[in-house]
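Appendix B, record 7
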Amino acid sequence: MASAPAQQPSLTVEQARVVLSEVIQAFSMPENAARMEEARESACNDMGKMLQLVLPVATQIQQEVIKAYGFNNEGEGVLKFARLVKMYETQDPEIAAMSLKLKSLLLPPLSTPPIGSGIPTS
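Structure tokens (predicted):
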């Protein structure tokens, strides 16, 4: 017999702000910052390697925070939290700003090719 699915945690806008703030703070803790830096250096700005090396570390850091708020301690919990934040982004400018900050911590800066490095035109 299958067990009943766990109830999805729901947070108010205020609670989502608190949790998001705690997640961002977790990334600036020295041990987590070192783990992220090591993963980024190993990935060498290669997007495939970023997904293999950086994303799992980032997921673990987030899981440590959000599990205290009822999200499961697996990747699914992080996805549910991300969906919840996405929903609140349109309603709350503070959450939108914090979400942007979190994304900047997770994603490498995009490097654009220098102007004029494309196919020469004649």
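Remarks on this record: The chain has a mean pLDDT of 84. The two ends are 71 Å apart (CA to CA).
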